[in-house]
Amino acid sequence: MSLHINRAVAEARTNIALVKYWGKRNEALNLPAVGSISLTLDGLATRTEVRFDPSLAADTLNLNGTPAAGKPLTRVMRLLDLVRAASGRTGHAAVTSSNNFPTAAGLASSASAFAALALAATRAAGLSLDGAALSNLARRGSGSAARSIFGGFVEMKAGTQEDGGDSIAAPLATWDVRMVVGITGEGMKATLSTDGMRHTAETSPYYRAWVESHPADLAAGRAAIVHRDLQALGEVAERSCLSMHGSALAARPGILYWSGATVDAFHMIRALRSDGVGVWFTNDAGPHVKALCAPADAPRVEKALASVHGVVRTICCPPGAGAVVIEEGA
Ligand code: PMV
């Protein structure tokens, strides 16, 4: 056994899908049923250190300063196993990960977390993967993590290969827009996205319609980004969000991720739009609301969102960069 201790630290930012992914074509390999288009955000990042250490009896995980066990540790161990298999590295690893935003707020952190882990773990194991291979690996941890490998606007392909070799993300463009995140009050326990997707696919009469309507939204999203057409992108983002939730709401029993504040924020964003502000909403597997707008309109959007009863905090995010190595070595 090698007595080599190798470590690497990587950072990745979260991303928000504008054309959503909901549903898997293969749950074991975490292959999405549909593609997606996202924006990587500056300001919401995970920094992760992976240290392969032959003296460890097992993999360990420290999350935001606290030792973690159970499901989070299992998910990390599964990714480490893939890295060990690819690199021939045999020892266990100590993983230390922290978010620069409050995890308790329930903002999706799996995207930034698994992108940072994929990069740090491969580098610590002596591998140097290209973006596509890293994206493929990050996807095994979380579907949305495949997108956080890259910065700016990113498209994730559903792919058709059985082994998922073509289920990878790639950068589309950089374009200076803003995503204003409205954190709504906590207290709601969300259905985990994997469980919500499975339940929707198995029981919702609208799931097939969601999958069938999806390619047109992807094409519209892609074209809007190519033409830097914020209105077209905003319109597809709102309808993709509502369609995704529509399919989940029609599951039996229906999955309802929204709180009252979520819906009030949607109305506020539409009222602003009626006043001539170019702003559109999106929302994921939780109650928080994200508003897409031009940089010049962001202060007004942030103020309006903050005034919604139940919105406890707002964060204004410019586009962010892809995952980066911060440190590496013994
Ligand atoms: O990355 P996951 O498996 O947690 O799924 C993400 C699902 C949504 O956030 C609702 C949509 C998306 O494309 O990010």
Q: Supply the CATH class of the largest domain.
A: Alpha Beta
Heterogens: (3R)-3-hydroxy-3-methyl-5-(phosphonooxy)pentanoic acid
| CATH fold naming of the largest domain | Ribosomal Protein S5, domain 2
CATH architecture descriptor text of the largest domain = 2-Layer Sandwich
Q: Give the structural class.
A: alpha+beta
In the residues, how many domains can be counted?
2
Number of helices: 9
Mean of pLDDT: 95
> What would the principal axes of the Cα set say about the shape?
globular
The number of strands is 14
What can be said about the biggest beta sheet? 8 strands, mixed
Report strand %: 25-35%
Helix % is 25-40%
The Rg value, from CA coordinates, equals: 19 Å
Distance between the termini: 16 Å
pLDDT below 50 for ≥5 consecutive residues: which ranges? Answer: none
Give me the strand/helix succession. EEEEEEHEHHHEEEHHHHEEHEE
Topology:
Blueprint: E1 6-19, E2 24-26, E3 31-32, E4 36-52, E5 60-63, E6 66-68, H1 70-87, E7 93-99, H2 110-124, H3 131-141, H4 145-148, E8 153-156, E9 169-173, E10 178-184, H5 193-203, H6 207-226, H7 230-249, H8 260-274, E11 279-282, E12 289-293, H9 298-306, E13 311-317, E14 324-329
Parallel strand pairs: 5-7
Antiparallel strand pairs: 1-4, 1-14, 2-3, 4-7, 4-8, 5-6, 8-9, 10-12, 10-13, 11-12
Helix pairs in contact: 1-2, 1-3, 2-3, 6-7
Bound molecules: (3R)-3-hydroxy-3-methyl-5-(phosphonooxy)pentanoic acid (PMV).
The site of (3R)-3-hydroxy-3-methyl-5-(phosphonooxy)pentanoic acid has 15 residues, from helix 2 and helix 5.
